Amino acid sequence: MTEYGPLTHKVIEYTDTIVKLLPTAKNPEDWAPLSELVATEEFTRTGTFMEKQNWQQCTEMLSGWAQTVDSFETTILRVTEVDDLVYYEVEERHFRDGTKIHVVNSATVFQFNAEGKIATVSVYLQAPAT
């Protein structure tokens, strides 16, 4: 059994919360339980196209994504926790109407602030050629 550090447990909680909220989250306000893990005032997300988002913009993006999928699963491939960073590599599976519609590998770097909240997220993606 793999033992994870305390920040990695927060990353897993963050992912589990997304999985739980996804089926019913349609508006940015619906992601409020996720904000308990996030330093919402200083938060920055850099996405796969190098777009930058603050927390409000991130919840708007999550709400748009929630309109396109019914459920989401991940399998941890590798995780490393160093100082205030967690490198989190997973296989993501996205479903709509019970059918797997998208499978990608993502590597996300989570950086935590001094209070142990997620302050920055940087997302890297491997997707099949289309």
Name some characteristics of this structure.
alpha+beta; Nuclear Transport Factor 2, Chain: A; 3 helices; 130 residues
Quick description:
With 130 residues, the chain is of the alpha+beta class. Helices cover 25% and strands 40% of the residues. Strand 5 and strand 6 form a beta hairpin.
Description:
With 130 residues, the protein is of the alpha+beta class. The chain has a domain at 1-20 and 72-130: Nuclear Transport Factor 2, Chain: A, CATH 3.10.450. The chain is 25% helix and 40% strand. The chain contains 3 helices and 6 strands. A 6-stranded mixed β-sheet has the order 2-1-6-5-4-3. 15% of the residues are buried.
CATH topology of the domain at 1-20 and 72-130: Nuclear Transport Factor 2, Chain: A
CATH class of the domain at 1-20 and 72-130: Alpha Beta
**Strand arrangement, largest sheet?**
2-1-6-5-4-3
CATH architecture of the domain at 1-20 and 72-130: Roll
- Percentage of β-strand residues: 35-45%
Largest sheet: 6 strands, mixed
Uncertain stretches of 5 or more adjacent residues: none
The dominant shape is globular
* H and E order: HHEEHEEEE
Separate helix tally: 3
Share of helix among residues?
10-25%
Could you give the count of β-strands? 6
